[in-house]
Amino acid sequence: MVHLLNKNNSIINHFIGEIRNVDVQGDRLRFKRNLERIGEIAALEISKTMEYENVEITTPLGLANVALLKSQPLLATILRAGLPLHQGLLNYFDGADSAFISAYRRHHKDGSFDIHVEYLSAPSIENKVLIIADPMIATGQSLVLTYKALLERGTPKHTHIVAAISSRQGIAYLQSHLPDNVSIWTGAIDEELTSKAYIVPGLGDAGDLAYGAKI
């Protein structure tokens, strides 16, 4: 299931517009904060799909019945670009455990590349709601490999993938390579993916914009 967060006009349009805008995205602090805001909006929407239980709490003036989350999700992110989006999710699911994965493109002299998963730090995800943050879904290959690597830590009850911008091709790849109990939440979907796997119009390299260009 794919959820398009900008399907209906809302404040998320401003945040997506600013991370795309070359006149604004040079402000590194604002770029990271806007990704964080998109993560917060996604967290709110995902929270509506989760399980709750009624709990009686004591106020200064009496008792109140409140519907609280039965359990916190597990938040996973792909380093390094996913960190601001991850923080936005963590701002709302502030009791959640976190997992971190290093996955990157390994380029070859002929211009091709493959995806390499190098590092994984994660608690058990057995029967948990898993949320994976990656700001850009280009080909979708790194997310599929990340999901498979996380399965070494157990089988999640349900998985949510959160992205700021996705390519139509990347969404299709995820749908054909991931199980039915995976939901995708994305701020926008772009139609073009270049031969070098860059999303157009996209926004450029999210990791470089957030943390500086890499060699």
Structure description:
This protein is α/β, with parallel strands linked by helices. 30% of the residues lie in helices and 35% in strands. The chain is built from 6 helices and 12 strands. Helix 1 packs antiparallel against helix 2. The longest helix has 20 residues. The chain starts with a strand and ends with a helix.
Structure summarized in a few sentences:
The protein has helices at 12-20, 28-47, 83-92, 141-150, 168-177, 206-211, and strands at residues 2-4, 52-59, 62-69, 74-79, 97-107, 113-121, 129-133, 136-137, 158-167, 182-190, 192-193, 199-200. With 215 residues, the protein is an alpha/beta fold.
Key features of this structure:
215 residues; two-stranded antiparallel sheet; alpha/beta; globular; Rossmann fold; single chain
